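Quick review question:
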């Protein structure tokens, strides 16, 4: 039993505890909501700071980008090391020939060179066979190389417009496949045909990344490689595709401007090289028209034939040197 003098103190303490319990019960839900809101705000603040929460994800994404670039670089090195086959060069030229067609054209070109040599020059059968062999091997090869180079130049000129179509389509909310379909219908050749092949590969079951990676194999140009790298990185690591392709479009257009500047600067050197290369033939033709007996010794005597052979050899060396000097790799 408590003493009478402690009874008011005990009653006061009990009353205080009761009042405190009532206050806590009334404001408990409010306090709990405040604590949860503070937790959410702390989490959001931490998410906004990449050093605290996003550091690991940022580093993992960086490592993923580096590994992707390394894989693509290794694949491109292997592709450059492997020279295209005959059928590959024919396809890159935009021709539908088969190997038999190419061989038949080579035989036809050789036979035509043989007949023209026998009919126009009056040489023996052995020199004529040499000219026929050279014509049969070189003429189809040169034609395919010419068509291939012209097709690549057209692709480089039209490709930035296709990338701009993809950028505008992605910004408007269209899927990448729909943007590629628009290009395959509206773009100019050969860009239209190459994007049709990408859609056909995707229809056959290939992922978009692998379908786009086959583009540099068909068109071995830096522009196609850049596009393949951007699509591969975006599909593996994420990011803004429109921004990446927009930067790619700027790079391609700057490269196009630089090519035009280089062409303008080197035009004088190319003209001079052409005049120098054509001058011996022009002079020989003029001498043949004015004094055929004077220059005819080069064709009718053994010493003249030797002089012609040596002159042709050094003329070829000079043309190759001038060609190396006026061509710029870009």
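Suggested answer, residue by residue:
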């Amino acid at each position: 039993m408590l003493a009478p003098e402690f009874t008011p103190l005990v009653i006061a303490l009990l009353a205080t505890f009761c009042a405190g319990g009532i206050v806590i019960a009334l404001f408990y839900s409010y306090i709990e909501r405040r604590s949860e809101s503070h937790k959410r705000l702390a989490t959001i603040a931490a998410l906004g700071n990449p050093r605290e929460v996003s550091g690991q994800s940022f580093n993992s994404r960086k490592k993923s980008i580096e590994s992707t670039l390394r894989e693509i670089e290794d694949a491109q090195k292997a592709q450059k090391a492997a020279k295209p086959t005959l059928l590959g060069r024919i396809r890159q030229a935009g021709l539908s020939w088969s190997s038999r067609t190419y061989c038949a054209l080579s035989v036809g070109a050789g036979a035509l060179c043989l007949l023209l040599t026998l009919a126009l020059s009056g040489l023996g059968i052995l020199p004529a066979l040499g000219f026929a062999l050279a014509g049969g091997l070189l003429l189809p090869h040169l034609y395919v190389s010419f068509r291939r180079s012209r097709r690549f130049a057209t692709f480089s000129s039209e490709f930035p417009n296709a990338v701009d179509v993809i950028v505008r389509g992605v910004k408007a909310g269209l899927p990448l496949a729909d943007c590629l379909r628009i290009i395959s219908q509206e773009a100019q050749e050969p860009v239209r045909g190459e994007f049709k092949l990408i859609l056909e590969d995707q229809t056959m079951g290939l992922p978009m990344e692998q379908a786009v990676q086959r583009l540099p194999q068909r068109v071995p140009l830096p522009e196609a490689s850049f596009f393949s790298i951007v699509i591969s990185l975006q599909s593996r690591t994420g990011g803004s595709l429109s921004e990446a392709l927009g930067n790619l479009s700027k790079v391609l257009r700057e490269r196009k401007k630089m090519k035009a500047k280089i062409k303008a600067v080197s035009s004088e050197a190319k003209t001079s090289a052409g005049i120098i290369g054509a001058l011996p033939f022009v002079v020989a033709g003029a001498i043949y028209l004015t004094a055929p007996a004077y220059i005819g010794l080069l064709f009718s005597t053994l010493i003249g034939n030797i002089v012609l052979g040596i002159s042709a050899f050094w003329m070829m060396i000079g043309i190759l040197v001038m060609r190396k000097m006026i061509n710029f790799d870009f």
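Why it works: Residues 241-290 form the longest helix (50 residues). DSSP finds 14 helices and no strands in the chain.
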